[in-house]
């Protein structure tokens, strides 16, 4: 039996809690979350055994999973560096950025505490424990960044997550942040900007956004995600996102110029290239 502390019982933390509870219902699950609704729901579902304060629960845990916004993960790592923890405790996180988390984790690593960076590449724009599920992370890619974890602690975490049949992928923090900037963070900026730009352009149009078909909704679904979580992501991966936005602007300007110049060949080639790439993702 393992005592697991999950700090942040939102979409991701609650889904991980469901997986670990499924792996062994005898695991002692302690939850920490200022959102009472998310905590109470997990208690009612009998997935979490009890709710506690972060400081108190941290001292009892064998495994600590930090699943709040990245800004909260970083401040909780700093807090953990000043708490008397169990000697073999493993601390891991689910944050969408890794370089700043791993930098903060140096305080734990220097003290010989086992820390493993983590980031599940599954989720949605929804928040809170009611939106989580046992299957949310099933067969997804889950990035791991080596910290100070022992092989035994790594095996322990993978064993706890076994019901999710995860595709574990080891990566360096910088490579991770560049990759997810392109795959997730810049797309979030683009979807958000598209929504705000369309709303501004159509503000005096009586029909406006209400006429939007599937294309607009599919392209912008992620803009409905939690602003607090995404602000923390932007602040913690600013350089890679900045670079990604520049590259996006270059491509956007090329297409804008082709449209402006009635350059049919370039427009067609641009769409053909994207079509082939996008179709290959679903094969
Ligand atoms: N939404 C997604 O699809 C994915 C999110 N992530 C990352 O996982 C983390 C959690 O994201 P979600 O579960 O989606 O967000 P969420 O908003 O559903 O859950 C975050 C939870 O953290 C709680 N929280 C805030 N301050 C706290 C504190 N001081 N102590 C304990 N809990 C606190 C909130 O009340 C909330 O319940 C974030 O770092 C995010 O970047 C990673 C992969 C996918
Ligand atoms: O909503 C979606 O489809 C997502 O892509 C969710 C998501 C959000 C943040 C991450 O770090 C990883 C995945």
Describe the structure.
The protein is α/β, with parallel strands linked by helices. The protein folds into two domains: 3-171, Rossmann fold (3-Layer(aba) Sandwich); 175-281, Orthogonal Bundle (6-phosphogluconate dehydrogenase C-terminal fold), CATH 1.10.3660. Helices cover 52% and strands 13% of the residues. It is built from twelve helices and eight strands. Strand 7 (141-145), helix 7 and strand 8 form a beta-alpha-beta unit. The longest helix is centred in the middle third of the chain and has 29 residues, at 173-201. The site of 3-(4-hydroxy-phenyl)pyruvic acid has 7 residues, from loops.
Rg, nearest Å: 21 Å
CATH level-3 fold name of the largest domain: Rossmann fold
CATH superfamily of the largest domain: NAD(P)-binding Rossmann-like Domain
Total domain count? 2
The CATH class of the largest domain is Alpha Beta
Mean pLDDT: 98
Structural class: alpha/beta
Q: Tell me the β content.
A: 5-15%
Distance between the termini: 41 Å
- The strand order across the widest sheet is 3-2-1-4-5-6-7-8
Low-confidence stretches: none
Number of helices: 12
């Amino acid at each position: 039996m393992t005592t697991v502390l999950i700090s942040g019982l939102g979409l991701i933390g609650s889904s991980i809690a469901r997986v670990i509870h499924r792996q062994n219902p005898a695991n002692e699950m302690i939850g920490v979350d200022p959102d009472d609704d998310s905590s109470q729901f997990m208690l009612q579902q009998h997935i979490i055994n009890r709710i506690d304060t972060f400081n108190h629960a941290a001292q009892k845990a064998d495994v600590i999973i930090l699943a709040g916004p990245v800004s909260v993960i970083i401040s909780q790592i700093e807090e953990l560096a000043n708490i008397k923890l169990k000697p073999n405790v493993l601390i891991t996180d689910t944050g969408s950025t890794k370089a700043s988390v791993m930098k903060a984790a140096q305080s734990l690593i220097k003290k010989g505490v086992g820390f493993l960076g983590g980031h599940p590449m599954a989720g949605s724009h929804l928040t809170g424990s009611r939106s989580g599920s046992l299957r949310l992370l099933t067969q997804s890619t889950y990035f791991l960044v080596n910290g100070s974890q022992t092989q035994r602690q790594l095996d322990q975490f993978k064993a706890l997550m076994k019901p999710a049949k995860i595709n574990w992928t080891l990566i360096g923090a910088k490579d991770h942040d560049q990759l997810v900037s392109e795959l997730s963070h810049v797309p979030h900026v683009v979807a958000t900007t598209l929504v705000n730009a369309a709303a501004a352009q159509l503000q005096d149009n009586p029909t406006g956004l209400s006429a939007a078909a599937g294309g607009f909704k599919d392209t912008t679904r992620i803009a409905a995600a939690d602003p607090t979580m995404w602000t923390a992501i932007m602040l913690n991966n600013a350089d890679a996102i900045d670079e990604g936005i520049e590259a996006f602007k270059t491509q956007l300007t090329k297409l804008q110029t082709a449209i402006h110049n009635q350059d049919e060949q370039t427009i067609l080639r641009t769409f053909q290239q994207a079509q082939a790439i996008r179709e290959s993702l679903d094969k």
